[in-house]
Amino acid sequence: MSTDEALTRNQHESQSAHKATAAFQTRYGTEQTDTPLSDWNDTLQTLLSHRSVRAYDGRPLPAGTLETLIAAAQSAPSSSNLQTWSVVAVEDPQRKARLAALAANQEHIRQAPLFLVWLADLARLESVAERASVKPEGLQYLETLLVGVIDAALAAQNALVALESLGLGSVYIGAIRNAPEQVAKELALPPHVLPVFGLCVGYSDPARPAEVKPRLPQSVVLHREQYDAPAQTQGIALYNDILAGFQVRQGQSDALWTDRSIERWRTRESLHGRDRLRDALNALGFELR
Ligand SMILES: Cc1cc2nc3c(=O)[nH]c(=O)nc-3n(C[C@H](O)[C@H](O)[C@H](O)COP(=O)(O)O)c2cc1C
User: Fold this and answer.
1) pTM of this prediction exceeds 0.90
2) What is the pLDDT of residues 228-268, one digit of tens each?
3) How far is the CA of 127 from the centre of ligand 1 (A)?
4) Residue 199: helix, strand or coil by DSSP?
5) Shortest-distance atom of ligand 1 to CA 52
6) Which residue has the CA at smallest separation from atom 6 of ligand 1?
C-alpha cells in the first residue's frame, strides 16, 4: 500500500469512527462509554438515525416506491416460510380519514400519502388447506396467531428501514387495534386476518422535523448470560433525566419516562379499547386455544 493510500484509509477509518460515536451519542442522548465498531456503514447509520415522523409535506411518493417497500418487506425472514402476513395499501383520502377516525383521530394518517395496514393473515393458508380438503386444527391456537403477528412485524420493520434509506419518514399506528372489527370491515378483511398496526409513509415536513429519540442505556436492556433485574435501576433513573431533557428541548412536558410508562398500564381504560382485544379477536374468527 502506498503512503497516499494508507493516508486515505486512515482518514476513512477516522471518519467512520467519528460517525459511529456521533450516532451512538444521539441514540442514547449522552456521552458514550460503549465503543461502537469503527467499521461503520450506511445501513447502521440508517438504523441508528430512526425517528418517527408525524408531520408530512404534500409531496407524492415516486412511482415504484410501494413495490420497492413490499419487496423489502418480503425479504424479511418468515417463520417456516409460511408468510402469514399481508398488507393493505391505502391511498384514498376518504378511506384514510375513516381509518384515522378509528385510530384515535390521528391527523398524520390523513396527511401521509400512503397508509399501510399490516395484517397477520391466517386466511390465505386456511383456504389453501380448504382446497386440499383439510380443516387445519393448528389455525385455532394462540401460537399460530403469534406466528402471523411476528411475521407481520418483521416485514413491516424491513419496509420501514427501506423507506428511511430512501429519505422517507413513517410512524407506526398501533391505535388501529382500538377498533379491529371496524378496521377489518373497512378493509374487507376475511375471517382469520388481524390488522396488527398501521404505518404512515411520506416525506417529512421540513418545517416540523422529527428528532432521534434517545433509548434506554444498553446496561438496562442488554443482559450477559442471565437476566439481571437489579442492574437496571440506575440506568432507568439516568434515562428518566435524559428523556425529560429531550422532551423539554422538543417543547414537550418534562414528565418522567417511568411515570408516563406506568400510566399506559395503570388502568383498563388506559388501554384505549384494546382491553377487549380478546373479544375482538374472537369476533374476527380467532379461537385462541
Ligand atoms: C407497534 C407500534 C405502534 C405505535 N403506535 C403509534 C400510534 O398509534 N401513534 C403514534 O403517534 N406513534 C405510535 N408509535 C410510535 C412510537 O410512539 C415511537 O416509536 C416511540 O415513541 C419511539 O420514538 P421513535 O420511533 O421516534 O424513536 C408506535 C410504535 C410502534 C412500534
Assistant:
1) yes
2) 999 999 999 999 999 999 999 989 999 999 999 999 999 99
3) 33
4) strand
5) 26
6) 173
Q: How far is the centre of ligand 1, averaged over its atoms, from the C-alpha of 181 (Å)?
A: 22
Query: Tell me: the pLDDT tens digits for 119-163?
Result: 999 999 999 999 999 999 999 999 999 999 999 999 999 999 999
Task: Tell the residue nearest (CA) to atom 14 of ligand 1.
Answer: 172
H-state helical runs in the chain: 3-28, 42-48, 65-74, 93-102, 107-111, 123-131, 142-165, 180-186, 218-221, 232-249, 257-266, 277-283
The DSSP secondary-structure symbol of 99 reads H
Domains and CATH numbers, the chain: 65-210 (3.40.109.10), 212-277 (no CATH)
Distance 171 CA to ligand 1 centre (A): 6
Ligand 1: centre distance to CA 49 (Å): 15
Q: Which residue has the cell 484509509?
A: 9
Distance separating the N- and C-terminal Cα atoms of the chain: 65
Phi, psi of 199 (to 5 degrees): -145, 115
| 103 CA closest ligand 1 atom index | 8
Strands, sheet with 114-121, edge to edge from the N-terminal-most edge strand: 85-90, 114-121, 193-202, 169-173
- Here the cell at position 54 is 408525524
**Sign of the torsion angle spanned by Cα atoms 8, 9, 15, 19:** positive
Cα of 53 from ligand 1 centre, angstroms: 9
